[in-house]
Amino acid sequence: MTFCAAPFVHMVQNPDGQFRTCCMYEKPLSGNYNNIKEAFDSDENKIIRDRMLSGENLTECKKCDIDEYHNGKSEISYRQTFNKRYEKKYIDEPLFKNLEISVSNKCNFKCLGCGPRFSNQFGPTISNNLPNSKDFEKLEFLKILGGEPFLDKKNIDLMKMIPRHKIELMLVTNNSIFPNKEILNLLSEFKTLNINLSIDGIGKIAEYARPGTKWNRFERNWNKWMNWSHDKSYCNIVPHFVLHSLNAPFFDEAVNWSGLGFSKWSWDFLVEPKWLNVSYLPEHLKKYILDKSVNLRQPLKNFLMMNQYDKKNFRKLLSKINVVPDEMENYVDLFYRNL
Ligand code: SF4
Description:
Elements (H helix, E strand, L loop, with lengths): L5 H4 E4 L5 E2 L15 H5 L2 H11 L8 H9 L7 H9 L11 E5 L38 E5 L7 H9 L6 E6 L7 H7 L4 E7 L4 H7 L5 H15 L5 E9 L7 H8 L7 E4 L13 H10 L4 H8 L6 H10 L5 H8 L6
Parallel strand pairs: 1-3, 3-4, 4-5, 5-6, 6-7, 7-8
Antiparallel strand pairs: 1-2
The protein binds iron/sulfur cluster.
């Protein structure tokens, strides 16, 4: 499949002010635009749409190709999500209906696999302006990312200025902050609510994979979200796990810990940075990960087969490993076998 509805309805604003056709699209738009609407209506975005409509297989969309190949994500691919929601309704008259926004990179975590673009724990704080409220007139879906969204008051200003009852909100948080009553009231006014809690392991593994995590605090906030949402049919609390070379064998135990059941989770296989991508690991580690994975066995198998062991990449992974928690020792010991 080559057609994707995203360029006809969607835009991403990153913390550094760059605009993208979607977060999976390999390149940001290259022009300087004053606001999202200008970027959405730009000539270069029109060119992307025309290429889609001509049947071209866009190389910039390779993340969606990868996801459709291994067929393993909870939503298969972003392309399928957009196509399911919008079909080809807006190909003649594109309409800005769907936004993903990071108003800044303010964050209190320094996660493996993240970098300065999305966390100021790696470098300077970057921040951009809120969109104009009239850009939200037709908006029906909003995804708020950070940094950590609850650390930046601009996200609260954003929630206040939009027609909440018409909008489905997805908010991605590291779960270090449980919002106050005022913010909870704002959240409860959205048409639907998806609170996406990033979790890349439990206990000490969570603290290792996402430095900044305090597991006690994570559990406390987890319970608060579960209590707050239990009588709200419009609200879903969705744990999200990104599998990479250091945490992949521990996905199933996180699912078991949650008590929610596998179908309530979302997950992804990390592709970049390459040194954390499980498909470049040596065969004996791939086998270990597969043996530990019941829930994701087939898609994981497909993903692992996409690349061969890459020695240079593996050396880089070894150079990045610090002291690991006891819970990871058996796994990490295997890294040094056969070297
Ligand atoms: S195919 Fe995927 S990467 Fe390309 S525009 Fe659609 S969602 Fe984005």
